[in-house]
Specification:
alpha+beta; Mth169, Chain: A; homodimer; elongated
């Protein structure tokens, strides 16, 4: 079972990496970009669990370690 | 228009960030994890472009700046 956790900064939290990328793309001649935000994508391969149990486990992992919930949000997809 | 670029290390390229996360989760008591890989998710807000043009532009951005195609693969979703 494969779980994908996307972790990104909450709306309103400054994203310097995104800002730098935005600036770099502009310098390279790419225009028409309104905003760029950069997050992490964590792909976890889990051993034999039901979809529900996997969701529960990965939510726990996200709360404990993968995301800093003070400044970050996360979404989980189980595939 | 919103484009999502997922950039991740090619299969076979060592992912130390993933390994460290795997180890940390094990230390916290999460078992049954086979593998963890960590990539970047880049969310780009683009000004009025057709879906096709957006795809073309974001592919160019990925090849030029967002991904290091020697060691990284990327996927693009236009939403």
């Amino acid at each position: 079972m494969k779980a994908i956790v996307n972790v990104y900064l909450k709306q309103g939290v400054l994203d310097p990496q995104g800002k730098a990328t935005h600036h770099a793309l502009n310098s390279l001649g790419f225009d028409g970009i309104k905003d760029i935000r950069i997050g992490k994508q964590i792909i976890i391969e889990l051993d034999g669990l039901s979809k529900e149990d996997a969701m529960k486990k990965v939510t726990q992992m996200s709360e404990t370690l993968l995301a800093n919930t003070v400044i970050e949000d996360y979404t989980i997809e189980i595939a």
